[in-house]
Specification:
alpha+beta, 2 helices, 16% helix, binds iron/sulfur cluster
């Protein structure tokens, strides 16, 4: 599995109550789903990363997030934001499949 740009898992209610200027990373082409080895052969966790390099720790290293938290990644603005389609269409489908916790997957 390569990097997957996925569209969002945005909470519809959050979108509706917002003024429309907030950026949800899950709805951006730069938000990629990646595998992260668990240390055990053939097993991995799912993580998300920003391939525009916008997610950084204080010392500058890249920060990645657990997949199941992706809907929480939002910003007031982002100069690299590239929205993908109508969020509402994705929400319905992705919310059905978004795990509720960090899960271990096997190849
Ligand atoms: S480019 Fe900006 S909006 Fe897109 S995933 Fe990275 S931080 Fe989020």
């Amino acid at each position: 599995m390569g990097d997957i740009a996925f569209a969002e898992i945005i909470d519809t209610a959050e979108v509706l109550e917002h003024d429309g200027t907030k950026v949800y990373c899950a709805n951006c082409q730069h938000c990629k789903l990646v595998r992260n080895s668990s240390g055990n052969e053939g097993q991995y966790y799912l993580r998300v990363r920003c391939d525009a390099g916008k997610w950084r720790k204080k010392l500058g290293e890249e920060k990645i997030y657990k997949y199941f938290t992706v809907a929480r990644r939002s910003l007031d603005s982002c100069d690299a934001y590239e929205p993908m389609g109508d969020p509402k269409e994705y929400i319905r489908e992705l919310k059905k499949s978004l795990p509720i916790k960090d899960e271990l997957y096997t190849l």
